[in-house]
Amino acid sequence: MNMDLKTDREWLETNGLGGFASSTEGDCPTRKYHGLLVTPLEGHEGRFMLLNGIRLTITGDRGFMLGSSFYPDTVYPRGYELLESFSPDPFPTWIYSNGFYRVKKEIFMRQGDPAVYVVWTLLDTPPDDFSESAGGEIEFFCTFRNSHYLSQENSVIYEETEETAQGYSISPYYGLPRLYFQFSESFTRTVEFIWDRNIEYPMERRRGFDWREDRFVPGKVSLKLIKNVPLVMLASLSPLEGQVQSFLLSNYNDELKSRKKRLKRVKSPWNRLEEQSRHFLVTNGAGQLSVVAGYPWFGEWGRDTMIALPGLLFASNREKGAQVLCDYAAHIEKGLIPNTLGEMQGFTSYNSLDASLLYLRALTLLLKEGFGEREVEKEVLRNSLFPAVKKIVEAFLENQVPQSRLTAEGLLEAGSERTQLTWMDAMVNGKPVTPRHGLAVDLNALWYGGLVLYRDLCQRFRKNFPRKGKSILEGFPDAFMKAFYLPGEGCLTDTVVKGVPDRKIRPNMLFATALGMLTPEEGARTVETVKRELLTPLGLRTLSPQDPQFAPFYEGGGEERDRVYHQGTVWPWPLGNLVESAMYYAQDREGERKFWKKYLNRFLEIHLDRQGIDSVSEVFDGLNPNEGKGCFAQAWSVGELLRSWRMING
């Protein structure tokens, strides 16, 4: 990819409703997910790409076009050659100059508003132009498609438009909502409808997906830009009424002021990461507080939410963190919370066992933050969260959870050779790439932690803890260690099938050490084994490089990437468990703290300004990890890094 295009870094704006805008530093889309209004729609599953992009042309002999796009064998327009600067703060901002005109472009979203704002400001005009203004033409590029798919020129599109206050609207396809365009300045419009054919997305081609599509342009808008006067454009599902011009300018100025105020609190890279973590918290279409697993393609995932939540919210806003847990409690079925929720992700599923066990783990961490001390929190805990714990734990105790069963010792046995019920869930040709049926170390550690939580809450609220639960807890530590601990290797096996351990070194054992289930000597040895075999500068490998099945690179098409997703590929999120374990078992706690402080600072130094600006990628290569891959902004990567930082700083 041409480095001059500045397409290696990606920015993100969100509206707290699951909608987002995103593209590259070079103002050139490289993914099918890059666009200015990508949003969930009522009555539809998944997000929809409504507005792909906007192109401003400064007209006249000295004019030029802003932005760039890929077409077969070319890039057009060549706005990247005129790009003077880019800044992500206070929101994505570009300055273009051709030596005669300088134009600033800004893009932002407001919380709770299903819309995107684009603002252009003419900064300089030619010295011999005393009008201090410039003519401009705006083109809107639209597709109105599900964000996972691409659009092609077709004859079923409806080309008519309707006027609205200080703007107009389009409704190109039956069953999809109307999109409104409104402007802070007067304009004229040509209604010629054209197709913009064969735009290309190099990142999709690299990832093995379809990568070429057609976008439609519903006419052009002509207007005048006046020096130092912001021209504000709104693209929205809900139009402004009344004094549109003043509302647009007021919304812009208010958002600018608010962002600058927030930026004053940003004193370190960790503050930047905390500030950007807001993008993951959303209110979904059902009015529930939730977490988006990752941008640009993931929606709400229960498993990801429960891992990300402690770092994203528990220290900064434990009431909101508790609200997410309460809202997920409404979805419990047969002891399971959903692995995915349908509105943004596109499908609802209950195909994981770890999601509900991680729910119990998340609540345990919330209680450690002091939740439940105040009276209003006690009521939430008693009336909403405790009943959820009871539903989950007793479903497991009574063997009512699908695909799971308890052994005579109370260990949790799950799945079959055809199922994939934990976070290592990649499937190729209908078969698990990383089989983890039988006894899985993470599921059993989480099951033990959940039993302890339920017992403690029963004592707190003077409820009867089931006799079967008491019996399991009494013998569980010994049964667990007998099944999983490998004294010769100084660590825990990943799974046990019919009494046979697989002996692969994976980060899943860290749930047990984080819960303090091992003796001091065993725990310390296990932590050192993980550090030696799995730790890299950007997270933990999913398999030791000494293993013959270790895959050094995460690349290729969908099937190729799925084959290596958990076979050595580096993930940042297990760092939270490793840091927690290392601090718990450290003999020299101050030395351990200094080690991790240096490590985590270096992590942000390497990665925070790469791929997703001020965020953390989903995965990295297993060998010499460098470039972020997968989603450029991943909730559990960010959440567990923040939790790790707080743990080592008390």
What does this 3D model show about the protein?
This protein has 650 residues and is α+β, with helices and mostly antiparallel strands. The chain folds into two domains: 3-244 and 257-263, Distorted Sandwich (Beta-galactosidase, Chain A, domain 5); 269-648, Glycosyltransferase (Alpha/alpha barrel), CATH 1.50.10. It is elongated and about 85 Å long.
Q: Brief description of this entry?
A:
With 650 residues, the protein is an alpha+beta fold.
Structural topology:
Blueprint: E1 9-14, E2 20-24, E3 35-40, E4 47-58, E5 64-65, E6 69-71, E7 74-76, E8 83-87, E9 93-97, E10 102-108, E11 115-124, E12 133-146, E13 161-164, E14 167-170, E15 179-183, E16 188-200, H1 202-206, E17 212-226, E18 231-236, H2 244-263, H3 269-276, E19 281-283, E20 289-291, E21 294-295, H4 302-314, H5 318-329, H6 342-345, H7 354-368, H8 375-397, E22 404-406, E23 412-414, E24 427-428, E25 431-432, E26 438-440, H9 441-460, H10 467-484, E27 485-486, E28 491-492, E29 495-497, E30 500-501, H11 510-514, H12 520-534, E31 535-536, E32 539-541, H13 558-564, E33 570-571, H14 575-585, H15 589-607, E34 611-612, E35 633-634, H16 635-648
Parallel strand pairs: 1-34
Antiparallel strand pairs: 1-2, 2-3, 3-4, 4-5, 4-12, 6-7, 8-9, 9-10, 10-11, 11-18, 12-17, 13-14, 14-15, 15-18, 16-17, 19-20, 21-35, 22-23, 23-26, 24-25, 26-29, 27-28, 29-30, 31-32, 32-33
Helix pairs in contact: 4-5, 4-7, 4-16, 5-7, 5-8, 7-9, 8-9, 9-10, 12-14, 14-15, 14-16, 15-16
